[in-house]
Amino acid sequence: MSTTSRSAIGRALGGAAMRRLGGILRNQQLARRDQFEATGAQANRIVFLGDSISEFGNWDEWFPDAPVLNRGIGGETSGMVLDRLDSAIGTPLGVFLLIGTNDLTAALPEPLIVHTVGRILDGIERRAPGTPVWVQSVMPRSAKFRDELDSINGRLQTLVTERPDHIRYLDLWPALSTADGALRNEFTRDHLHLNGEGYRAWTDVLRPIVDRITSGD
After folding, report:
1. Cβ within 8 Å of residue 102, ≥6 positions away
2. What tens digit of pLDDT does each residue of 167-182 get?
3. What is the pTM of this model?
4. How far is CA 168 from CA 59, 87, 141, in A?
5. Residues 101-139 pLDDT 10s
6. 3.30.390.30, 3.40.50.300, 3.40.50.1110, 3.40.50.360: which CATH number matches 41-215?
7. What is the domain partition of the chain in residue ranges?
């Protein structure tokens, strides 16, 4: 669950219920982290790394012929992902990184977000030199977030241009956004998370890349 979703629920339920809900979320995060540490960073997988948007993807069903590994945890920021790279990155075939929307909700400074994403890329490179990494644009939300998201995505794109060629930027907005910069209504229920059609649109963008990875091209 995102920070925005928790805030809306908190206003409806009150402080005590919100604290309890926050505790449940934290326990869920820790449960996933513990399992990732127990199973380890499995080799020769295509890793989906990020927050709840990655976590909720049924990647083995969208890509039944690809060796996928889900390393998404709901509610996480870029710093939290950085902290758990050992359980995500072994010797992957490729990495799809999607992170940043919870950082923006938490009002973290954009330079800090981009710096942390850079450290994630450094960490992947140390663990698996030369591994293809796709830094995906932070997805659209409601239109009021457009300017912030345009700014952070521009910074991420600049970050990637300063990296080796096996690190690439993948712009998801043409597939997901309306003309005014909102996540398209048919792809979401809360203007943050994707529904089934939203995942279909996203995986349509990813599929040619996944096919190239699995074919060895």
Report:
1. 2, 3, 51, 75, 76, 77
2. 999 999 999 999 999 9
3. 0.89
4. 21, 22, 23
5. 999 999 999 999 999 999 999 999 999 999 999 999 999
6. 3.40.50.1110
7. 41-215
